[in-house]
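Researcher: We plan to redesign the surface later, but first we want a full-length starting point. Tokens attached.
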């Protein structure tokens, strides 16, 4: 198959319409339409159904997405292998991270990598759930993922990054006698949580269930950036990584450690087999930390 056609096919998949894909890859719209038609002729069936809202994949189109991404990645791998000889002076690294891991530890990891290899661009994605992240790595939408250690990562290589302590962050003025809180006390508080299936909520709920306790969910937010503002506004208590505690405390929140400790085991994941030079270097730097 023609790699240019595959690249334009993936552009339409990623951007939803031929017009948006043409704009994104700086190719004239008729040229994109022609490339898709030629690819459909080559495979002998329609790959998209054209609708008013955009281009919808047919079953044949869906079947082509993963092999097409892999073919394009293999070409990029060959190109980056050449760049590796000259010290990673070019290329791109695709990463995905759970949203609550983007600020810490991912930001520092990306910063260190970029300082070492400023010619390599980094593209970050943020799937909501661990299972979604692992699937993105499996199908090749991203080469590396920063997530928590879990069964969702089955079939992927895992490298330990850090053990993250979680703390209880309560509204300003919260009355407390100690700097820590146990699970029974935590279960009696109105909680501000992320959506079901997210890593933080799953970890918290499992700890309470194991202790035969039931959480009181006061606010469920799909917007993780809203958790601390919600706490500061008095909506309830959130359980978040310790790295966010200093910021919250500086804004007036009451921060307490949790007994017994709640920890999230952060790992870097990738598919088995060869990595691009950029990804291999990122893993090397992460493991050295």
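Model: Full-length starting sequence:
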């Amino acid at each position: 198959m023609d790699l240019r056609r595959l690249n334009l096919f993936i552009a339409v998949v990623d951007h939803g319409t031929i017009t948006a894909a043409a704009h994104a890859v700086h190719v004239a719209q008729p040229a994109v339409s022609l490339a898709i038609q030629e690819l459909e002729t080559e495979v002998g069936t329609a790959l998209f159904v054209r609708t008013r809202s955009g281009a919808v994949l047919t079953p044949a189109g869906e079947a082509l997405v993963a092999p097409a991404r892999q073919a394009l990645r293999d070409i990029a791998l060959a190109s980056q292998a050449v760049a590796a000889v000259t010290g990673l002076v070019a290329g791109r690294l695709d990463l995905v991270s759970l949203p609550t891991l983007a600020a810490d530890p991912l930001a520092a990891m990306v910063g260190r990598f970029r300082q070492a290899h400023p010619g390599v661009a980094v593209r970050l994605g943020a799937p909501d759930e661990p299972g979604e992240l692992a699937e993105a790595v499996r199908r090749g939408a991203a080469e590396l993922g920063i997530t928590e250690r879990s069964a969702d990562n089955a079939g992927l290589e895992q490298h330990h990054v850090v053990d993250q302590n979680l703390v209880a962050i309560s509204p300003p003025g919260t009355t407390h006698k100690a700097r820590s809180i146990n699970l029974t006390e935590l279960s009696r508080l109105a909680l501000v949580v992320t959506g079901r299936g997210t890593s933080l909520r799953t970890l918290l709920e499992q700890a309470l269930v194991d202790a035969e306790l039931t959480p009181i969910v006061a606010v469920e937010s799909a917007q993780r950036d809203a958790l601390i503002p919600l706490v500061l506004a008095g909506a309830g208590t959130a359980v978040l990584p310790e790295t966010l505690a200093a910021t919250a405390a500086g804004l007036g929140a009451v921060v307490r450690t949790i007994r017994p400790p709640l920890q999230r085991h952060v790992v870097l994941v990738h598919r088995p087999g060869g990595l691009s030079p950029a990804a291999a270097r990122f893993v090397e730097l992460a493991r050295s930390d």
